[in-house]
């Protein structure tokens, strides 16, 4: 196990943990960082690592929202447990479109859309959308101020917006947050519901990659996976708390500008690299 590989894994874990829950595309950041400081591991392992490291981010959501998401908590009254079960039904309904479309088309999407130019384009396009929609929302009072107010129909529509994130660079949280706000959710509710949708989606994506590339990992590879997940877990906790605190006083336009700048950087970097090569 090499010290430089360990440092790269730590950096990738930090990037994953910080960007997964912000609407700025963790895929775009991970592609750029891995290009600059590539892991010297097999392609199969890197494919697994880039997805399975997200499990650390998922555990952060479960850690922070365990009481709210646990329908069997003895600390909850009967009505609260029923409300939690209703929340899980909405989460499952919202995840159905991605499961139905994402599973059969996973290989096709990876083959034709997983490249720097698509990622850069999506970063820029959705950056512009964030700015446009937030300008429209400047004087809007959102009717949905609590996750419990999200209806089954609204949950399904948010899930349809989540389908857009199958295109690399879109950002799963970005697509669901934009969709939820368009459907009337406040910024805080949109962000929180996006966190919850990430649980089954990322578990499913990680399981899919493990089945697809499943093999016996070496000792160092297991250490790299666990280390990346641990770092992503710690950083995700900070990232989630930051975003929730940020949206209480601000809109999402900053993230829109950030996406546009990052998209231009990604486009320029890979364009220059292609010319030099």
Please give the structural blueprint:
Blueprint: H1 3-19, H2 26-36, H3 43-52, H4 54-64, H5 66-69, H6 78-113, H7 116-136, H8 152-162, H9 172-182, H10 187-212, H11 219-247, H12 253-276
Helix pairs in contact: 1-2, 1-11, 2-7, 3-10, 4-10, 4-11, 6-8, 6-10, 7-9, 7-12, 8-9, 9-10, 10-11
What is the makeup of the main sheet? Answer: none
Number of domains: 1
Radius of gyration: 19 Å
Per DSSP, the total helix count is 12
What share of residues is helical? over 70%
Tell me the overall shape: globular
Low-pLDDT residue spans: none
How many beta-strand runs? Answer: 0
Global mean pLDDT: 89
Beta-sheet strand percentage?
Answer: under 5%
What class, by secondary structure content? mainly alpha
Question: Between the first and last Cα atoms, what is the distance in angstroms?
Answer: 31 Å
H/E order of the elements? HHHHHHHHHHHH
Could you walk me through the main structural features you see in this protein, from its secondary elements to its overall organization?
The chain has 277 residues and is mainly alpha-helical. The chain has one domain. The protein contains twelve helices and no strands. It has helices at residues 3-19, 26-36, 43-52, 54-64, 66-69, 78-113, 116-136, 152-162, 172-182, 187-212, 219-247, 253-276. Helix 4 packs across helix 10 (187-212). The two termini are 31 Å apart.
Descriptive terms for the model:
mainly alpha; 277 residues
Compact summary:
This protein has helices spanning 3-19, 26-36, 43-52, 54-64, 66-69, 78-113, 116-136, 152-162, 172-182, 187-212, 219-247, 253-276.
């Amino acid at each position: 196990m090499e010290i430089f590989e360990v440092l790269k894994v730590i950096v990738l874990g930090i990037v994953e943990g910080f960007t997964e829950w912000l609407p700025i595309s963790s895929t775009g950041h991970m592609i750029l960082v891995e290009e600059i400081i590539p892991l010297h591991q097999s392609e199969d392992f890197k494919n697994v690592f880039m997805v399975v490291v997200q499990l650390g981010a998922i555990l952060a959501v479960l850690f922070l929202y365990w009481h709210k998401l646990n329908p069997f908590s003895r600390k909850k009254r009967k009505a609260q447990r029923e409300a939690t079960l209703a929340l899980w039904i909405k989460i499952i309904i919202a995840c159905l479109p991605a499961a139905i479309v994402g599973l059969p088309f996973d290989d096709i999407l990876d083959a034709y859309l997983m490249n720097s130019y698509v990622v850069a384009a999506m970063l820029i396009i959705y950056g512009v959308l964030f700015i446009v929609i937030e300008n429209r929302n400047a004087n809007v009072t959102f009717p949905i101020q609590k996750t419990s107010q999200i209806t089954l129909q609204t949950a399904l529509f948010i899930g349809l917006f989540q389908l857009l994130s199958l295109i690399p660079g879109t950002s799963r949280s970005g697509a669901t947050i934009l969709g939820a706000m368009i459907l009337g959710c406040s910024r805080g509710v949109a962000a929180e519901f996006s966190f919850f949708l990430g649980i089954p989606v990322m578990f499913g994506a990680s399981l899919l990659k493990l089945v697809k590339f499943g093999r016996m990992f070496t000792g160092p590879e297991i250490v790299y996976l666990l280390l990346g997940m641990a770092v992503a877990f710690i950083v995700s906790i900070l990232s989630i708390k930051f975003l929730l605190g940020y949206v209480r006083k601000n809109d999402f336009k900053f993230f829109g500008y950030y996406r546009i700048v990052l998209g231009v950087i990604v486009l320029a970097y890979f364009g220059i690299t292609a010319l030099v090569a």
